[in-house]
Structures are given as structure tokens and as C-alpha cells.
Amino acid sequence: xxKGVFPIDKLQSIETPFYYYDTELxxxxxxSINTEAQKHEGxxxxxxxxxxxxxxxxxxxxxxxxxxDCVSGGEIEASVKAGFPASKIVYAGVGKADWxxxxxxxxxxxxxxxxxxxxxxxxxxxxxxKGKVARVAFRLNPNVGAHTHANITxxxxxxxxxxxxxxxxxxxxxxxKLANVKFVGLHFxxxxxxxxxxxxEALCNxxxxxxxxxxxxRIHVEHINVGGGLGVDYxxxxxxxxxxxxxxxxxxxxxxKLRPGQTLHFELGRAVVAQCGSLIxxxxxxxxxxxxxxxxxxxxxxxxxxxxxxxxxxxxxxITSDEPTxxxxxxxxxxxxxxxxxxxxxxxxxKRGDLLAIRSAGAYGEIMASQYxxxxxxxxxxxxxx
Length: 386
Ligand SMILES: *Cc1c(COP(=O)(O)O)cnc(C)c1O
Prior knowledge:
Blueprint: H1 8-12, E1 18-21, H2 23-37, E2 43-48, H3 55-63, E3 67-70, H4 73-81, E4 89-91, H5 98-106, E5 111-114, H6 117-129, E6 134-141, E7 163-164, H7 168-177, E8 181-187, H8 197-216, E9 223-225, H9 245-255, E10 263-268, H10 270-273, E11 277-288, E12 293-297, H11 306-310, E13 316-318, E14 325-331, E15 340-348, E16 355-358, E17 379-382
Parallel strand pairs: 1-17, 2-3, 2-10, 3-4, 4-5, 5-6, 6-7, 6-8, 8-9, 9-10, 12-14
Antiparallel strand pairs: 1-11, 11-12, 11-16, 13-16, 14-15
Helix pairs in contact: 2-9, 4-5, 5-6, 8-9
The structure holds pyridoxal-5'-phosphate.
């Protein structure tokens, strides 16, 4: 497998660890999303800001015309600052604080994705105080499992997210009693890193059933939002740099029965940004252990927590060596035994000073960085700029 293409000379002069973003790949990915989504009438794509809120990344995604899917007031602020029009901002989350709801109201965002009746009442009250009417969609828990890591399925009845399906009619009924909220849509999100189109088909079937029920009660829904969750190929970032957006959007076009005039909204995060980002780290020491070799690097789980948090696999390449491969445990400097990026992974023979690229790190990487051990936060650099 060929290595990714990196401007090694330029990367050598940047203080490690840092994130390197291939903006050309990001733009190509966005073109593919637009091409495939625009083949279907009424499809509207939002970017899930939580995957990566680097201001430069946000600007490129906004320039491509996507909307923003936010899960906090901070993300609404970042989206507005990056130039996303409020009419394309949706806001989800089980625990919206008053200031966050007020921020959404002040910006006249497109829609609040509401996850409980108490939340609906608070939105109504805060909207009334401003003399506004908030547009709300209900996030329903479709009880659809996704074939992904247990920590990142969100659409099962046991998860904290959303409203139970059997309560759908009663929560919609509640909006009739409240003067400052308007019911406009249904929202779903079944999980993340989903590669089996059958999982999305299962969601479509569920949405169709719910819409049939709504038809029987003559309730019209302006829009359906099916969330995000499309996965990427972590094992082959070079061979499959762009996810199969055609299969993804075509699945929804084939299986989900939209009513006349309805729009279908998507909230893709990982699939948009994962493959364009790499965490670049320098090898500090090669340690010959009793039974194996360790490559000790200057990045740790404070820079990229996915391997420690989800046992996630990231392909690692030694981008400054062409020597024969050897097996290494690639580990960070943090005082926790989970600070391991990979066990017994093949790298071109590594020595002190070599640069390693931890691939497919553009999503849930930089944004989840912490300062544990009082480490510095990693910076992000764009291929456009260096
Ligand atoms: C996290 C999240 C997304 C994006 O998920 P990806 O797997 O990154 O596509 C979309 N919608 C909601 C509500 C989310 O919480």
C-alpha cells in the first residue's frame, strides 16, 4: 500500500505534534457530496460541526454550501462566525442550556431538534420572552441498531437520546398548545462509523412507518432529518480517501418515501473530514522492550483520543523512512497505559526524529484534544498555507 503524499520538507519545520489537513482532498470530498446529493430532489446536507470545528475547515465547508449541525452554543457561535447562514443551522442535544437556546433564538436558526417535553416547554418560554416562534423538530429514537462500536450507537431504546416513538403523536400534540413553538420536522440519528447501508435502510423503513402513522392523523411534516453516521475506511485512507456518497444518498432516495414538498436533511460529520486530516508526530525514542519494540512518539491521547476511548484503529505511516518494515507498538508520553496508538503495527524502520502520520484523524481528532498532563493543544495546518 502506497503511503500518503506529504510535503515532508515543509512538515519538518513545524513543531510536533500537529494536525495536517489536505484541503484539496476536503474540497474533492465536498464536491462528491454535492454531486451525489444534488441528484435527488429535496436533499439538504449539513455538516456536523462537532467532528472538527477548526475555523479554516468550517470556512471551506461553508463555501461548498453545506449547512451546519450544532450540538452546543459554542458550535452555533463558531458556525455563525464561519459564515454559515442562520437559515442553514440546526441545533440538537439532550441538554440545551438556557443561554444556548437564547443564542439559537437570537440568531433565528433554522430548527431546534428537541429531545424531551421539558426542553420543548423551556424553548417555548424563552421564545415567548423574545416575542419569537421557534421552529422545532422532534428527535425520535427509532430503536434501530447500527453495526458499529457500542459506544457510538445512539438509536437504541436504551440510549439517552431522543423521544420514544410511541410518544410521537403526543409530543407533536404538545406543540399545538404552545404558542411560541412551531412543529416542522422529525429528526433521527442512529450512530456513527456506519458502513452497512442496511442500517440506513432500516432507518428508512422506520421513518416510512412513522410517516404513515402521521398521514393517518393528517399531520404534515415539512422536513425529515436522518442525521449522519456514514463511516470511512480507516484501514485504507490512500485507496479509499472519499466515502461512497453515491451508495449513501441513493439508499435514502430508494428507500425513504418523501411526501410531496418535503425536504430530506442529512448531518454528516466524520465522512466529510476524517480522511483529510493526519496527526503528525515525531518519534522520540525507540525502546527495545523484553518482548517487543516501542516507538515512543510526542503525540498522546490528549491529541487524538479515539484509540484510547473507542479502541479505534488508525493507520500509521513512517513518512520519513523507506527502510524495511518492522512491528512496533506506537505509544505516547502520557502517564496512562491506554496511551497507545497501535499495537504491533508495521512501520518502515523508525529512528529518533522520524515523522509518523496517524491517518484518518480529521474527524473527532483536534476537536477532542485536551490539556491533560498540562500538555499544549495541537495546532492545525492547512496544505493550502504551508
Ligand atoms: C454526531 C452527530 C452527527 C454526525 O455524526 P457522524 O458519524 O460524524 O456523521 C450528526 N447528527 C447528530 C445529532 C450527531 O450527534
